[in-house]
Design a protein that fits this description.
Elements lengths: L6 H24 L10 H21 L13 H15 L2 H18 L5 H15 L8 H14 L4 H22 L1 H6 L4 H18 L29 E8 L2 H14 E9 L2 E8 L2 H11 L1 E9 L13 E9 L2 H9 L3 E4 L8 H11 L1 E7 L6 H13 L3 E4 L5 H9 L7 H13 L2 E7 L4 E3 L2 E3 L4 E5 L2 E6 L2 H13 L5 E7 L6 H12 L4 E8 L5 E5 L1
Parallel strand pairs: 5-6, 5-7, 7-8, 14-15
Antiparallel strand pairs: 1-3, 1-4, 2-3, 9-12, 9-16, 10-11, 12-13, 14-16
Length: about 525
Amino acid sequence: MPQTLDAVAVRGWCALALDALGRDREAIDAINVYPVADGDTGTNLYLTMESAAQAVEAVFAAYPEPPVYAGVPPTADVVRAMAHGALIGARGNSGTILAQLLRGMAEVLQDDGDLARALHRAASAAYLAVAHPVEGTVLTVATAAAEAARKASGTPAAVAQAAYAGARDALDATPSQLAALGRAGVVDAGGRGLVTVLGALVQALSGEAPVVRGEAPVPVPVTDCPAEAEAAGPAFEVIYLLEADDVAVDRLRTRLDRLGDSLVVVGGDGLWNVHVHVDDAGAAVEAGVEAGRPYRIRITHFEQSAAAEPPREQVQRAVVAVVPGEGLAGLCAEAGATTVLARPGEPPASGELVEAIRRAHAREVVLLPNDAELRHTAAAAVEQARAEGIRVALIPTRAAVQGIAALAVHAPDRRFDEDVVAMTSAAGATRHAELAVAERQSWTMAGVCQAGDVLGLIDGDVVVIGQDLAGTARTVLDRMLAAGGELVTLVLAADVPPGLAAALETHVSKAHLAVDTVVYEGGRQGVPLLIGVE
């Protein structure tokens, strides 16, 4: 059914684009020959879109159903979240450009919803973000899509269909525009990824798969392996998020342009994603430090020397755990687990979980997502790891305290199935709670809360609304221990009031005989307090 490009349609577009990129990822990787034949364009586009989709879902989750709210957030909030999610999750040259395309679209869509103008803004923003634009790339495809959309008329679905057709025609022409593509006999990988994203937009608006001139899209040629680039380029890819003002970023662009190539800087409003290929990775990071505050720094060597080293022997079994703070990361690492840090507001993508599974270098892996919201992401990671020949078991832990309980009974000398059953049983026997601070007025299972209220959640549901951490925590503990328990686990954030842990330990020992309490420092984590009861 035709739609306007409202919040629901944007949400559908993100989900469809993610699914489509997941299906096309390997084919896009296979034709990745420019600017570096490293075979990861499809993967980078998928991870970037996954971050955008997760950000959109987070916005929808923040808007409750009636009677407090209609359940659908404003379109402006959704498109801004889409752009921000893509920005902070952008991977590689292609993902960084996709993030800028989505940001350009969001700038228009949050105001008037004019799709043709949004596509034009997107193409212009992407060109400005690339230090030295090259024709025959995703930039050319984006421009063709915008031009075709400008000439179209009718519903948003018709405009999207025209943009898709224009992009397909431009994609087919890329081998004649860029010599590296012509020699390899392939189209531009980034351009093909954009065509996939635009096809998802058509489907989100019309409810039907896109077509060109009334026919099914012609398959794009795919090679068995990426062709080599024309000449050896810089040794490293450097990517980081940067907090800096516009003037500092202008200076940074000039400096990085002298250091290397494939420079793309996207973002705005004080937050930027910087991507560059250089021989001196340290100098690229130092330039970011001089400009502002770089973080989430990723440095990749294009020619990994590790291939020449003797392969490291696989261990039989390993545990991969997602943790919400540095403190628990250290605790789990000491217990032998490979950890993935989930920063506040930045849940890990499936690609990060797959990388952690590979990093564990084991024949058998137990994955602890430790968050109910990560169930689909974790399942996708498990599926990919299994396709690579790794035996993976997913234990659906919904909180970090359940992961701690599972890790405590982990015994690698047991049979794999027995170990998984024991860990699953331990996690399932651990009730979990957390204390959070309300950001806005909203309706909960315990009534209407106000901004600043302390919320006590047990097994994901708000059961207590309080005014201070200590009082709310005592109430939550009493409710949980009313059903019995032998051990209480407290995980405290770095910024909780001094003495909170001691006060809660004293309360448990006096009010609940024969119940032990263990306390862990969680460091910087998304909520002040995590509670587990076994």
